[in-house]
Design goal:
32% helix, four-stranded antiparallel sheet, 27% strand, six-stranded mixed sheet, alpha+beta, 9 helices
């Protein structure tokens, strides 16, 4: 069995206050990208999760262990992840892998959403990779209509920017909005995304409050955003906690042409708005 674990794009990320559990209230619109990890799953003598070339704790392994703890009695599995989504790049690749593993037990284990939330803030939204308005710390997922076709040009900048470090820097900078402001923004985003509008139709709402913190830690992000605009991107944004910057385009052809003008080896062109 081969599973697809698509990257996610934060079209916007509005930051609220820090909660008692240490997480932050958020208001964001997520959409899947055609860029995706490929996960091969087969029966084995014992559970094993391998991800060649990526060291450290694997969220997909934690997801499989959580299913066992919840009583899932599927056969022992070998899960091998072919990483195509850059690591620690603000694209939710690890969360997508974990969600893909959780989907193996859909219909057999109750409370997958709660298990997903315990694994990480981005995992619940990836149980069903589709456009969504995401609230809370990521656990409140409200489906949105599929948008008109559009494309993304990604500049991952090598990844490796710690999400925790970016949020800590945001706290140091005093960033954050009130609950009332997040509620108002959620309403505006619902209205803007209604009837399948392209995000290019509401660029004024495509704001990432973490951008200042991410740029503070990695100033090259500002240069990448400027380069995307100079290459012709109608909208240039930071996704998630970075460091990936994204140019939005109406179609793959215009995104590919901009990538050619940039001439960067790390540029990735992909479709946006629908899972592969």
């Amino acid at each position: 069995m081969i599973l697809s674990a698509p990257a996610k794009l934060n079209l916007c990320l509005y930051l609220g206050g820090r909660r008692e559990d240490g997480l932050h209230e958020l208001c964001s619109v997520f959409e899947p990208l055609s860029l995706a990890d490929a996960i091969t799953v087969g029966e084995a003598a014992a559970d094993e999760v391998v991800c060649p070339g990526v060291e450290g704790e694997n969220l997909a392994a934690r997801a499989l262990a959580a299913l066992r703890e919840a009583g899932w009695d599927g056969p022992p599995l070998r899960v091998e992840i072919e990483k195509r989504v850059p690591v620690a790049a603000g694209l939710g690749g690890g969360s997508a892998d974990a969600a893909a593993v959780l989907r193996l037990a859909r219909g057999e284990v109750d409370g997958l959403e709660e298990i997903a939330a315990r694994l990480g803030a981005d995992v619940p939204s990836q149980l069903d990779p589709a456009p969504a308005l995401v609230r809370g710390a990521g656990e409140e997922v409200e489906p949105l209509p599929a948008p008109a076709p559009h494309a993304a040009l990604l500049l991952p900048d090598g990844g490796g920017l710690s999400t925790a470090a970016v949020f800590a820097e945001a706290d140091r900078l005093g960033l954050g909005r009130s609950v009332a402001e997040l509620e108002e923004l959620a309403g505006r985003l619902r209205e803007a995304a209604a009837a399948g509008a392209s995000p290019l139709d509401y660029p004024e709402l495509l704001v990432n409050d973490l951008a200042a913190a991410a740029i503070s830690l990695r100033p090259a992000i500002a240069d990448a955003l400027a380069a995307l605009r100079e290459a012709g991107a109608p909208v240039a944004i930071l996704t998630g906690s970075g460091p990936t910057t994204v140019g939005l385009f109406p179609d793959l052809g215009s995104a590919a042409a901009a990538a050619g003008r940039l001439g960067r080896e790390d540029a990735i062109v992909c479709a946006a708005g629908a899972a592969p």
